[in-house]
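ASSEMBLY PREDICTION REQUEST
Request ID: AP-0331
Submitted by: J.K., bench scientist
Number of chains: two
Total residues: 617
Priority: normal
Notes: Please return the full assembly, not individual chains.
Input sequences:
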Amino acid sequence: MGIINDDGYRKVIDRQYREMLAQCKTHMDEVERTLPEPIEDFQLLLKERGVSRRNFIKWTAVMTGALMLPPMFRPMVARAAENFSRLPVVWLHFAECTGCSESLLRTSYPNIDSILLDTISLEYHETLMAAAGDQAEQNLEKALHDFPGKFICVIEGALPTGLDGKYLTLGPKGKTGLELAKEVTSKAAAVVCIGSCSAFGNVQAARPNPTDAKSISEALNIKTVNIAGCPPNPINFVGTVLHYLMFGALPALDNLGRPVWAYGKRIHDYCERRPHYDAGEYVEEWGDEGAKKGWCLYKMGCKGPYTYANCGRIRFNDAISWPIMGGHGCMGCTESGFWDTMAPLEKPVSQAGIGVVGGEHTIDKIGIALTGLTVAGIAAHAGLSAFRHGKCDKGE
Amino acid sequence: MEKILPKQEWSVALRINHWVMATSIFILIATGLYIARPFTVAHGETVNKFFMGNVRFVHLLFGVILMFIFIQRVYLAFFSRFHADWKDFFAWTKLGNFWKQIKFYTLISKEPPAHTHLYGPLQSLAYAGLLFMLFLMVVTGLILTGAGYHGGLLRFVYSILRPVETLLGGLVMVRYFHHVLMWCFILFIVVHVYMAFWYDIILKEGTISSMVSGRVFRRSH
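STATUS: Completed
Returned structure:
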């Protein structure tokens, strides 16, 4: 596009970024003034965990790039990371497997994302907190009382809404998930749904959905930031919180409430196996020649073409690998209702059986049957027409 | 004495529209089936192969042609210099004729219904349905194409159509409807071609050749 090389255009963009940077600085000053002091000094903590200053600077460059900001924001990302633990966080668990927490906290060696998450000022986290019973309840009440409208509410898990929400009760007072979610989210500065359960309902909301589980935004009718994925990448969560710290506002969201900087493009668009897709080279069977050569997994049911996520660029487990690199197709876990719409997971969607009417039959089978019936009908009609109209001609 | 008079039925623009649309639809079905169920091109180096890429290019090219052909068809329906036929799509509202047409098709009656519109009552419904199907096909196609383009006109169109994608339940459901619609097109083609030949044989008015020459031959007494 020629317009990008245009000097006037560049000037406008540069000015906008400088204004954004000034805004960011003002906001960071305010954060440092109003929010409580960090419990631990982040730079000291990095040193203790064996992360060099150089690595930290490299990390800020990666994070700035991931957030789609120009390099001039790197000092701001570093500053936001240092202030990361000032932001009070209340972390709620509903109907889920805690896999998202596991994914965020487990790493083979301490990288900066996991250290950030270790230092995060968790006022309440059902899996990680030391407190139990009434004491835990007090922590939550204290957080709601001390930081009204200032804390971030992170939610993991869907909300069962059947039986007035009684499929899910928790805590010593036997509150339903619905009650707790309503109480906490009404006082939160922002609600971040982590994982596809809280974002879209995930497996709990898959057909036939016996507990009538719903996503947080549906169940409570509120706007949420959806860090989709099963589990999501820690970077997507850290980046969103950094953005909130830096600008005091949530990043731009797409139609499904996912941050555009992380979920703006499809798996297919950035897949390392994409050239094999375009070449017409497909794995036909697990372990065949194509699989050994790393060909495209489209015919093995890869849902990359329908899935918006940055897995291929950010990768998992300290950026070691990700599903498609490991030789299995994407299963589309960042899309809403993926258990129902993306099934079967190891076959292309064109070979999916159609729900109620079709049973196990695919669209193509039904289509061929209908076409066959039509042709048979036509043959019968043609025969009858010849009989009826043919006789007529003789009669004349 | 019986006379057979030629009558101009289809304008040049409409005939071109018909055949370009037919060709596009055939090519789109063939390439679309490959995209849904590709076979592996085993021989040769990856760097020299671009089969799926080429098939997708042809599919998208004819998809865009189909979109403009659809727009032209709707334009002709309202603003054709010879016969703007938008009213003929409502031939089915004449219920008496509708009933007669069904009796004629089911061979109960040998008398065709009166020729009040350009299309017969059932034909008008089928063609209105075809235009609606074309509209849905173009919209779902634009969404599926636009998702892979991050700049240019397609991205712009996609950003407008994104709410439709969300409404349908994501790209995977958009693909599903695109695939189901293809089968609707195949069924339409089978019935459409048969009916054209049937008319040609039963009424002997030159229905088949009329889409090439533009003329039908009506008997007058």
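REVIEWER COMMENTS: Helices of chain B lie at 12-36, 51-79, 95-105, 121-146, 152-168, 171-203, 207-213.
SIGN-OFF: pending second reviewer
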